[in-house]
Design a protein that fits this description.
The complex is a heterodimer of chains A (114) and B (115).
Chain A: E1 4-7, E2 10-13, E3 19-25, E4 31-37, E5 43-49, E6 56-57, E7 64-66, E8 76-78, E9 87-94, E10 104-105, E11 109-113
Parallel strand pairs in A: 2-11
Antiparallel strand pairs in A: 1-3, 3-8, 4-5, 4-9, 5-6, 7-8, 9-10, 9-11
Chain B: E1 9-13, E2 18-23, E3 31-38, E4 45-50, E5 55-56, E6 61-64, E7 70-75, E8 84-92, E9 109-114
Parallel strand pairs in B: 1-9
Antiparallel strand pairs in B: 2-7, 3-4, 3-8, 5-6, 6-7, 8-9
Classes of the chains: A mainly beta (114), B mainly beta (115).
C-alpha cells in the first residue's frame, strides 16, 4: 500500500545533540512538508519542499534543517539550536504544490528531551 | 483562507450515522472544503474534500450547501474506531501565491462513538 512512513515513532534527545527524523513516501508525490504539533495546538509548518533538490523555510524553521536529495525522502534534523524540541512531528506530502489535492500525513514522531 | 466554525464535541451511537457540521460563511469561490481527522497520538488522516458538489468516498460523504456557506461530513455507520477529532478546513485549491500551501487546523470537533 502507498503511504508515508515516519521513523522512529518515539525519539529521545540529549542536550546538545542533533537528531534526524526520517520521512519516506511511496506515493510519487512531488511536494513534502514538515509540521510540528504541540499539545492542544494546531499545526505549525517547519519546512516544505515543492520538488526534489528544493526546499523552503516555513514559519518556525529556526533550529531545524532538511534535505531533499530524493523524491521519496525528506529527512528533518532537529539541531541543538532548537531550544524547545519536545513535540509531535508530522511529515506530509501532496501530489503537487499547486494542486487542490490534499496533503497526506505520516503517523508522526514524538520527540522528547532526556 | 476562510475561517471555519465547528462544534466542540459530539456523541454518536455505534452503528448510527454521524453528521458533523461545519460553518464557513466567508468561503470564496475558489476555496475547497477539506476534512481530516486525528486519532489521539496519530497523524491526521485525510477523509474527503469538495468544491461545491456533494462528494462520497469509501470513508464518508460530504454535503455542501448550495450557497457553500456550510457543509456536513457524514460517517454512514460509525464505529468505535471513528472516535477522533475531526477538522474542517477551507483553503484555496492550488497555490495562489500566498500561504495556502500550509495546513492550519482549528480546534475541530471531538466525535465520541459510544457502544
Amino acid at each position: 500500500d502507498g503511504g508515508i512512513t515516519q521513523s522512529p515513532k518515539y525519539l529521545f534527545r540529549k542536550e546538545g545533540q542533533n537528531v534526524t527524523l526520517s520521512c519516506e513516501q511511496n506515493l510519487n508525490h512531488d511536494a513534502m512538508y514538515w509540521y510540528r504539533q504541540d499539545p492542544g495546538q494546531g499545526l505549525r509548518l517547519i519546512y516544505y519542499s515543492q520538488i526534489v533538490n528544493d526546499f523552503q523555510k516555513g514559519d518556525i524553521a529556526e533550529g531545524y534543517s532538511v534535505s531533499r536529495e530524493k523524491k521519496e525522502s525528506f529527512p528533518l534534523t532537529v539541531t541543538s539550536a532548537q531550544k524547545n524540541p519536545t513535540a509531535f512531528y508530522l511529515c506530509a506530502s501532496s501530489i503537487g504544490f499547486d494542486s487542490n489535492q490534499p496533503q497526506h500525513f505520516g503517523d508522526g514522531t514524538r520527540l522528547s528531551i532526556l | 483562507d476562510a475561517k471555519t466554525t465547528q462544534p466542540t464535541s459530539m456523541d454518536c451511537a455505534e452503528g448510527r450515522a454521524a453528521n458533523l457540521p461545519c460553518n464557513h460563511s466567508t468561503i470564496s469561490g475558489n476555496e475547497y472544503v477539506y476534512w481530516y481527522r486525528q486519532i489521539h497520538s496519530q497523524g491526521p488522516q485525510y477523509i474527503i474534500h469538495g468544491l461545491k458538489n456533494n462528494e462520497t468516498n469509501e470513508m464518508a460523504s460530504l454535503i455542501i450547501t448550495e450557497d457553500r456557506k456550510s457543509s456536513t461530513l457524514i460517517l454512514p455507520h460509525a464505529t468505535l474506531r471513528d472516535t477522533a477529532v475531526y477538522y474542517c478546513i477551507v483553503r484555496v485549491g492550488g497555490y495562489s501565491g500566498g500561504s495556502n500551501y500550509k495546513l492550519t487546523f482549528g480546534k475541530g470537533t471531538l466525535l465520541t462513538v459510544n457502544p
